[in-house]
Amino acid sequence: MCPLARRSFLIGGLGLVGAGAGLLGTAGDAAAVTSPEIIDCAGWGARPNSDVVPVRSQRPVKIIVHHTATPNTKNLSRGAADNLARGIQNFHMDKRGWIDTGQHFTISRGGFVLEGRHRSLEALRTGKRQVEGAHCSGQNLVAVGIENEGTYTTGAPPGRQWDRLRQLCAYICEQYGIGATEIYGHRDFKDTACPGDSLYGMLPRLRGEVAGALGQAASSSALQLASWPLLRIADRGPTVLAAQHLLRAAGERDVVADGQFGRSTADAVRRLQTAHSTEEVNGMLGGESWPLLVSVADQAGDADVASAVQALNAGRPLSRSLRGPADWQQLLDPNTPR
Ligand SMILES: [Zn+2]
């Protein structure tokens, strides 16, 4: 299971989401957003947590979407949802050694919403407190984690699951005062395929639908978010070429810059991950390793850095200089206008 691991959709040409269908007219109408039914820990038969669950007097500022990387079951029943929640808790407590379920909420393929870690629902109802989770290290105090049952490498979540995800996100945003654009995927922060290429690709749509539910206006570019591309074995193209140049600048001189992510590139990423003690050492270049790579490469001030820039900018140098990871992130984002 994914998080469990320890360690585009454009709103077509409208520009503003919620501008149609009179949604903007409901702006500020809190009554429009209601909580989906949420089954609490007692409801699905959770074990007691093995230690005190830390509850902080602060609001989370974002939501992180995961998939469980479990089979796409056809059993959409309440019983299956309860079993899923118990299975995840057992896995997290017995195999990971955690005090309780890692994520705050779980949504089954049948569309049942369940509390994950104890007290998450109570904290959400207050709108003022955050349970410290264990779904994405570095983000557990600031992000609400939602696990969606299934593997969404390809294929979309069933309609009921999607509807509940939208409702739950809208309710969390409403309760904590979080903007709809602050919905992320696990891979935005870690070197992981979670929440799957398909579900990750649906996040702009999710942000748009949540913005609509909240009566928030958001431009289509804001819904896209600049993020780090996830690169893996068998990927190819200019982004891979740029990554290879950056790896070379970072000291990996044996990497051949050919635009094809093969085993030697993955091995170089593994060494980078090992050197920086990232959560995963898996050869995937994602949200945790990219900022490390661009920082190390920048410091080297190497000719390969210029080649990386050109690879991302249609063979041309940039007219401005890059100032840190955020600039690189923008340059790597295929949605950034050139
Ligand atoms: Zn995840």
TrEMBL record:
It comes from the Bacteria. This is N-acetylmuramoyl-L-alanine amidase. The lineage of its organism: Bacteria, Bacillati, Actinomycetota, Actinomycetes, Pseudonocardiales. Transmembrane segments: none annotated. Residues 50-196 form the N-acetylmuramoyl-L-alanine amidase domain. Pfam families: Amidase_2 (PF01510), PG_binding_1 (PF01471). Residues 319-338 are annotated as: Disordered. Belongs to the N-acetylmuramoyl-L-alanine amidase 2 family. Residues 36-190 form the Peptidoglycan recognition protein family domain. It comes from Pseudonocardia aurantiaca.
